[in-house]
Amino acid sequence: MSFNDDVYDLVRLIPYGRVTSYGAIAKYLVDNRASRRVGWALNNSFHVESEVPAHRVVNRNGMLSGAMHFPPDRPMAQLLKEEGVDVENGQVVEFNRVFWDPMTEL
DNA sequence: TTGTTGACGCTCA
DNA sequence: CTGAGCGCCAACA
After folding, report:
1. Nucleotides of chain C within 7 Å of a protein C-beta?
2. What are all long-range contacts of A21-24, with beta carbons under 8 Å and residues at least 24 apart?
3. What does pTM read for this prediction?
């Protein structure tokens, strides 16, 4: 399954304290329409043995739409804050500043 | 096999 | 500025 692996690899490349969006990943790998598959891939990342910093991936607005799918003992917002990313009300503060775009960074 | 669902994103009213 | 709706496509019942 190369798509999932590609997603995992790319997510692992996200620098500490930075975040990116599903759409950015999808566009970099295939095209914008694949964003839904990215979400599914990350969902799978939990049952995969390789660790994937899925908390660094949010939707295009910087909202933690996937927070509810994280383990209760490992809240998405908390993980981000521990990396220095401010999260407020389920949304990344100054998303534009911490946004990491694979298209331009790679 | 068919229908529904979803960690999205874009468009239109 | 909001909210509703639609398209995509793989997984699942």
Report:
1. 7-11
2. A21/A57, A21/A58, A21/A59, A21/A60, A21/A62, A21/A99, A22/A57, A22/A58, A22/A59, A22/A60, A23/A59, A23/A60, A24/A101, A24/A102, A24/A103
3. 0.91
